[in-house]
Amino acid sequence: MTEALVLHEDRLFPTDPGMRGIARRLYAEVKDLPIISPHGHTNPQWFAEDLPFPDPATLLIIPDHYIFRMLFSQGVPLEDLGIPRRDGGAVETDARKIWRCFAERYHLFRGTPTRMWLDHALRFVFGVEKRLTEETADRIFDHIQECLNKPEFRPRALFDRFNVEVLATTESPLDDLRHHAKIRDGDWNARIVSAFRPDPVVDPDFEGFAGNVAALGGMTGEDTASWSGYLAALAARRQAFKALGCTSTDHGHPTATTCDLDRAACEGLLAKALAGKCTAEEAERFRGQMLTEMARMSLEDGLVMQIHPGSFRNHNRRIFESFGRDMGADIPTRTEFVHALKPMLDRFGNEPDLTVILFMIDESSQSRELAPLAGHYPCLRLGPPWWFFDSPEGMLRFRRNVTETAGFYNTVGFNDDTRAFLSIPARHDVARRVDCAYLAELVADHRLEEDEARELAIDLSYHLVKQAYKL
Amino acid sequence: MTEALVLHEDRLFPTDPGMRGIARRLYAEVKDLPIISPHGHTNPQWFAEDLPFPDPATLLIIPDHYIFRMLFSQGVPLEDLGIPRRDGGAVETDARKIWRCFAERYHLFRGTPTRMWLDHALRFVFGVEKRLTEETADRIFDHIQECLNKPEFRPRALFDRFNVEVLATTESPLDDLRHHAKIRDGDWNARIVSAFRPDPVVDPDFEGFAGNVAALGGMTGEDTASWSGYLAALAARRQAFKALGCTSTDHGHPTATTCDLDRAACEGLLAKALAGKCTAEEAERFRGQMLTEMARMSLEDGLVMQIHPGSFRNHNRRIFESFGRDMGADIPTRTEFVHALKPMLDRFGNEPDLTVILFMIDESSQSRELAPLAGHYPCLRLGPPWWFFDSPEGMLRFRRNVTETAGFYNTVGFNDDTRAFLSIPARHDVARRVDCAYLAELVADHRLEEDEARELAIDLSYHLVKQAYKL
Amino acid sequence: MTEALVLHEDRLFPTDPGMRGIARRLYAEVKDLPIISPHGHTNPQWFAEDLPFPDPATLLIIPDHYIFRMLFSQGVPLEDLGIPRRDGGAVETDARKIWRCFAERYHLFRGTPTRMWLDHALRFVFGVEKRLTEETADRIFDHIQECLNKPEFRPRALFDRFNVEVLATTESPLDDLRHHAKIRDGDWNARIVSAFRPDPVVDPDFEGFAGNVAALGGMTGEDTASWSGYLAALAARRQAFKALGCTSTDHGHPTATTCDLDRAACEGLLAKALAGKCTAEEAERFRGQMLTEMARMSLEDGLVMQIHPGSFRNHNRRIFESFGRDMGADIPTRTEFVHALKPMLDRFGNEPDLTVILFMIDESSQSRELAPLAGHYPCLRLGPPWWFFDSPEGMLRFRRNVTETAGFYNTVGFNDDTRAFLSIPARHDVARRVDCAYLAELVADHRLEEDEARELAIDLSYHLVKQAYKL
Questions:
Q1: Is the ipTM, as predicted for this complex, more than 0.90?
Q2: Which domains does chain A have, with CATH numbers?
């Protein structure tokens, strides 16, 4: 039996008729606003080259760790999903087989945001009308394949169709930004910018750190073996990113630790790090110092700073050995902010011209640490719920946990943070719906008037993000 | 004034009429499914001997630490409740007096699951029609006493009436399983199995550890003073349990620590543990190593592994000295899983033939650590909310916290985990109702179609638990 | 455009019509009950002298760190709000300008309890009928100013109008309690008592600790340089507080650590503390020992003990240097109770005549540690959600997190804990509404009968607090 694929127009709204009515009215105000996507991981090459996406599996499954982690958890080897092995060993290459393997197990995603995003893409991007099942797998595969061969499904056409006002990708300082330059220099009128993500050159534990820093020196003509040259090289690359429209930096450290060391200590740590001789504790201090240095540079060049701490990367040893990074095996850990951020805040916390956006994957810190910090320090803002919490329940918990202490105006709207290009409209739609649902609750129990909720809905969907990211 | 004892047919369902209708339809599909009880602490002797339960206090109060902990917290000495003292000192023996003491304070249980379970047993097992109060205490006591004297209230009759398809108890490797053997060898056609709980012989801090290990040697003919003999003895007892139908092991360690030590280190720790000379840290490492050893054995013999970490046992020193273990003084502590499980997961995490079911009493770990781990590792599944969280709010929080990341199919259905035999139908009923209420929410706000919710309701009540526990 | 200032009569009640009806009926039973305010920080001088409050800014903004922290977080310097600098440097003194600065930014408080409290005071204390905005700022300022000049807006008149049965303030042992004595000796028939807050003389890290302890000696004629004299001096001040009606002590330590040291260790720590030579760890142990000493004294003199742990005080270094304590820069930290309280509980945990009320600002401890502890130990009770969690969502989470394990009767009703006198009726009203909303949920999904909910609503609003605080 094949069921219709229905995305109900009231999805994610409260069930109570009074509240639902309010939510509908609020959503009507925001649903057609342009998408501001200030943080994500799409590939700028797609937009620079505008080649067709090759097939449904390559587009929707192979790059999406939300999808393959769930299949892996239920016993599907990553090889069967076409994920490339580091050693070049054999993996499935038949896109249809990969698609079938996924479709047969689509029930595993019930109740997950992945299901919602994929259904949204199937229905609204590709016009699919039947639910994805083992039975419909082949027909839907063929239909998507047919679409992908058409010009209106090329990256630029989709970007325009998605009504994206600005999209940020994320690059390392070592990236030459050629794709961004090409987009900018061409005649396509889209705003696609990079975010400066220096982890490979500021984290001594990053694979190839010393080589990365040397390459940084090569790119900039600075002596990155000296502390001052190293900082100058970073500042130079920030300028290069900024010149191509970049407005933000991003920092994915294992913790939120910041430090404020004296110059001699910094020089000593850099030397050790380049020699590969840092202890775990020294590496932590080096990263912590670099957050403070980045804050200082932000105060100078105006780039907005994003901190994404708390992920234990590559937790599954064998998967890391066989497949590398970003294979769905990053696991959140308990994250402390109050002591960790103090050295940086003691230096720059009261600067109204600095913006530091904090993300978290430890929800227990939301009401305890993050909302109180953001509700006090002028430089701090709260990023939206991240990663596993980019989900209806995660978003609702976030609003419920932080609003009473930090208000709405210390938050920065939504980030889709995705590699899955087709999920961008779906993700923003979910965020807008959930915010409207939350606001409808406040209106329905008379904590807020509806005219205020209307203004807030628009601020949360559009204005706050533009303002926070200076876009 | 005596009020009617009402258990409303819509209890625990959402109030919104639309959602309530969905919940009712889902619940109708599952309410009469047989009970699978894969983890609990009922006494197999009850079923082996089938003697009448002596009186209401002995049946319902004295063995139920949920009940006497609350009374104790409000100033009732355990002696007044008939809890036996270790020193044989005088305690109340008049069952009616104990019952009255409880009934006078029944308002203390408002809003607790204990109240719900007890009302369920009073209403549906004994047919009581008035609410328990000081005024009705005596009449209800007499009524229950009268029931208990009838054959249809003997353990086996109740077991059959409760529609239990399979019930697991929990025994130490030192248990001779005579009650299980007697049940199996008799002509009563019930499936009652044990679970292998080796804490007394794998935890150096357990009372009488060295003696326990020696007894293990005696039972198996192995030299348990040697590492290989010790492991062989454990493997032999696992086989003996398995021969009587056991399908799982259970591990109640203070933390989730696992280790992967070399053989010499293991031998050294065993020697120290047997000599009673382990430091706290060494005892922790020994327990951690034994979890990894148990995982290895599970991969060989197919027993499903359950880990129940995070309880600070016997927190009240004087109560422990006077009354012993399991006196309602076990308090949850912060529990870390991400680093703790890594040594075991590095060894066996990707084995699709291994099943490790994780329980928690630190809810902050649900969305942060457990759902992400279970949504990735093939061997991991999430047990239902445990102990204090075997409750409507606890269950709802669990589903809301884990579903979006781990889905439904990395969870394993319900465990009643109880010593209170009469609460088993009540607990399963609560779990089924809460799951239906949660699913109704997802249907009502269009995150799930109702046909999918129906399939899920049945999976959560019946199929997942059978499959996860290989029952 | 000026909008009406509406406080809907059903605010904070559930939206579902059935639940809302129950909530209304419950609230009708409690809305007019007298206010019991057992813990707060109003200034007794107001009531002793009964002078008019000078102006709207001095009354409503300058003393309210909830308000100025939010404005500061959005870039308003504290100087602009008239907060006095330690160095006597210039700050805004024009009350109208301060008020305008606040009114222009009133949207920042949307969704916060501050908004609700202030609207309540504007509407019900001052009869304001328009929403506070940039446009209405001046008119509302003038209106409040006019009110404040009238006798019925003096402190005593407002106290009587607010229907406060008893109000506790908080004083240091070094306070001479002259204002309390004056209130008591006058002919005004109000019950205003102190709470004994010994932090300045029991915390070696408190500013001026040694001098404070010497002053304590001076006040009591005890040799506070000796351990026995120090304890005797504390006991004497407790007696002096008690003589003026005080029934409780309060302890604002950074953690919940308690200790049970031998006398020599205590003497050694006191000597070091007075010499200013404690390490951080020794200061922690000293504070921990003093909690146990205070518990012992409470067992003797009957004062109820309150523990408020977990705040990182004065987190913003520059704000502390420029403006001092209580400037909205106190940030909650992770707080551990299970190990921390054990030494004290091992000594006194089972004493039914001792009452220790625990507060928390780490919500993750509610279901994990606090409810299980309070649901077991006879001496323990749970204080209401504190500080950032004195809010509708915070209160609901608290009830949902603790009720199933600790019941209602191990909680102690509401504390307003405020310096903002005019927010007292608003805060109690919010607490009563939220409790009624929560109880209505339990009735609506049939976890509780309505007659029980009625009794509970009254207990939670009135009886529990009187009983717990012996008022």
A1: yes
A2: 17-51+154-468 (3.20.20.140), 53-153 (1.10.2020.10)
